[in-house]
Amino acid sequence: MASRGAMVAGSSGADYEHREQVAAQYHISAVNKSRLRSAMFFHCALTVLLLMKVGVDLLDRLDIFILEIEELQIPKPRWWEWWWLSSVLAAPLGLSAVKRNSILRMRRYCLALLMLGVVPALGALAAAAPELYEYATADEPDVQMWQGLPICGIWLVWVSLAAQVLGFQLLFARRLLAAWRRRRAQ
């Protein structure tokens, strides 16, 4: 397409680059939306792992007997496991907030993650810490074992993974909120 008029005096024609760049808040928003979706995927993966463990108890409550599963002697789920499983219900709210760039929905998503994910993870840490201390210090520890490993150690590893995933979700959500606020302020 032909230009309309003469080139501006004193310009080499290379001054178009500032118009070719995406505004910072849009770039930040796009990057953090993708990262938040990835963190949500890992949250769902952790939920599936925990659901497999809790599923054994559900089968037992429904009087469904599968010999191979019963032979594993998987311990009964604790209170915080049931509570943490509900944290996956926050994902549709977060995805909706990302799709609509909704500040209100993203705040609700963060609150749901805190209440349904972080609080039970802290409860798991509080429940596992005394047992882990006893396992580490006692000569004959009286802690629950599974496949030769202390349950409290397994939960500590799981809580550390869950804390990382939840932390990243909250971090990316906060960054999105900041980018969306900047856009609304302009």
UniProtKB/TrEMBL annotation:
UniProt cross-references to Pfam families, sorted A to Z: Jagunal
Keyword Endoplasmic reticulum: yes
Major localisation: endoplasmic reticulum
Topological relation to the membrane, as annotated: Multi-pass membrane protein
Subcellular location as annotated: Endoplasmic reticulum membrane
Keywords assigned: Endoplasmic reticulum, Membrane, Transmembrane, Transmembrane helix
Highest rank taxon of the organism: Eukaryota
UniProt xrefs under InterPro entries: Jagunal
One Gene Ontology term from the biological process aspect of the record: endoplasmic reticulum organization
Family that this chain belongs to: Belongs to the jagunal family.
PANTHER family: PROTEIN JAGUNAL HOMOLOG 1
UniProt protein name: (diamondback moth) hypothetical protein
Organism listed in the record: Plutella xylostella
